[in-house]
Specification:
Blueprint: H1 12-37, H2 43-64, H3 70-75, H4 77-94, H5 99-104, H6 108-121, H7 127-145, H8 155-178, H9 184-206, H10 215-238, H11 244-250, H12 253-265, H13 272-293
């Protein structure tokens, strides 16, 4: 069904709406690693609660409307499994390495999504698109490499973040196909079921307790669940309005915002070259978005 949209050129207003929803969605999503980094509860456990709270939020709506069927649930399986694995690994990584390092590795995902957009969805990409996307990626790399080594410095955290980003690309690819014929709320309910089951097994294997030891951690769990849940709703809304490659490039706002939030709330430093990197990302994204929306 996704192929039915190949070659269609959406209206400029539609593209602008998709770009705005993508930017705001990623802004909410980028808050999660900052919140998780300060928690005592294991990142995989927070991801587990996020999925099941998310299911309760969206599942209650679609069940009441009788919009959730076994057919929809099965179709959401690939996206849900990718989502659960990606979020669990990324939250774990956020507790092992610095916020900047974990966010840096999100610069890999735009490349994966750009390739998938061209090959799978026949999206049009020209040399100018590649130039501005490359400049934004370069700015994100400068942003992270110019940072300090706050965090544990554990290489395992960087490896986990890399795996999370690559698997996370699958969530957008599979989700774009399903969202052609399935409503956003139904898709998110079905996706959260698979993510919750997968993360339940991960928690069981890890031996971690699913009960938070402090009230503060429960507040963090709820903040991540509701904030990120709203962010992903916006991203799914944008799936049929913005191209996959444009969404991937806008995702580079994540390391910018995560680094700023870590500076404000976790006392992680921001250096002069990081500011330059942020300026490159924001400028390139702004120009690219305006070009594409025209």
């Amino acid at each position: 069904m996704a192929r039915a949209l190949v070659g269609e050129q959406p209206d400029a207003k539609v593209v602008r709406a998709g770009a705005a929803a993508t930017a705001l969605g990623f802004w909410f999503v980028s808050l999660a690693p900052v919140i998780v980094a300060s928690a005592e509860l294991h990142g995989v456990v927070i991801a587990f609660w996020r999925s099941w709270i998310g299911f309760l939020m969206f599942g209650a709506v679609v069940v009441a409307r009788r919009q959730l069927s076994w057919s929809v649930v099965w179709r959401c399986a690939p996206a849900g499994i990718c989502f659960g694995a990606s979020v669990g690994l990324f939250f774990w990584a956020s507790q092992l390495t610095s916020i900047a390092n974990a966010s840096l590795l999100t610069t890999l995902q735009p490349v994966v999504l750009l390739i998938a957009g061209v090959i799978i969805f026949a999206e049009r990409v020209n040399g100018t698109d590649l130039f501005w996307a490359g400049l934004a990626i370069a700015g994100a790399i400068v942003l992270v490499l110019a940072g300090g080594s706050e965090g544990t410095g554990d290489l395992k955290g960087d490896v986990l973040a890399t795996a999370s980003v690559i698997i996370g690309a699958g969530y957008f690819i599979f989700g774009k196909r399903v969202l052609v014929t399935v409503g956003i709320t139904s898709f998110m309910a079905g996706m959260f079921i698979w993510a919750g089951v997968l993360l339940g097994f991960a928690v069981l294997i890890s031996g971690e307790s699913i009960v938070a030891s402090t009230q503060g951690d429960w507040v963090r769990v709820l903040a991540v669940a509701f904030g990120s849940g709203f962010g992903h709703y916006l991203l799914n809304y944008a799936q049929n309005k913005a191209s996959l490659n444009l969404m991937g490039v806008i995702q580079l706002l994540v390391p910018v915002n995560a680094t700023l939030m870590a500076f404000l709330f976790l006392d992680q430093s921001v250096r002069a070259f990081q500011v330059i990197g942020m300026a490159l990302v924001i400028s390139a994204l702004g120009i690219q978005t305006v070009r594409r929306s025209r």
